[in-house]
Amino acid sequence: MKKRSFIVSVLGAFVLGLSLSSCSPESAKVYKSQDYAYKYEYAKDCFARGKYSRAIPLLQELVTIEKGTDNGEECLYMLAMAEHNMGDWQTASDYFKKYFQSYPKGQYAEAAEYYVGESLYRSTPEPRLDQSQTLLAIQAFQEYLDLYPQARYKSQAQDRLLKLQDKLVTKEYYAAKLYYDLGTYFGNCTNGGNNYQACIVTAQNAINDYPYSDRREDFAILVMKAKYELARMSVESKQYDRYQDAEDECYGFLNQYPDSKERVNAEKYIKSCQDYLANHTQTNELGK
Known about the structure:
Blueprint: H1 2-22, H2 25-32, H3 36-48, H4 52-65, H5 70-86, H6 89-102, H7 109-122, H8 132-147, H9 154-182, H10 195-209, H11 216-233, H12 236-256, H13 263-287
């Protein structure tokens, strides 16, 4: 532990040295100064001029020195906003959260609570990746709207929530589509469970979980196609029931989406299902 602490100290000194070497003589003088009022005014000036990389190390020091004072409150908010404007979203979110916890009735409390979510929102990955950060951002915006029903940033928060939900929906669609594309791969359709069943369950859950999504038809298409393929690839003992289910799904799809681009396929599936069901019934009657 001592060795690690020494290395951290050396690295910290090295980074500070680089910062000082890249600063103007005035900046270097400020960083070394013990005049905290002077540092505070200089940090504010840097922040106002958008010199966030200069303001941040000063504000990090001042947050501790000025803790519990009006200046400390402002320093913490400026530090959070400076990190946000520098694009360090996770650090910014942490500082905004710290501000709200430290000053729940503070001058910038509502803005800080909003920017917890905004910083998390900006750090969310594309839909194919893990969406833990997206869920945290949704939670943060919902907490903001619960705390401030007449919120200053209400419309922005609501817009962000819709976009975050769309990201979750898109991830579910990619998952369902992947199951469909895998088909019989890693799952022998003639011997039980398979990817078509996983596609159906994933898509149907998404339809139920996101009833107002623009992707409802896309999920419905996957359910319809997967049910048909499931029937086609099933063992004989299960085919009759699954073809019936697939036919019902196709009719339901056409009723709900009569102008769908998949209408032709739906009609083909219905014809194929009807042919199988008719032949199967005829076979049963001949066997009696």
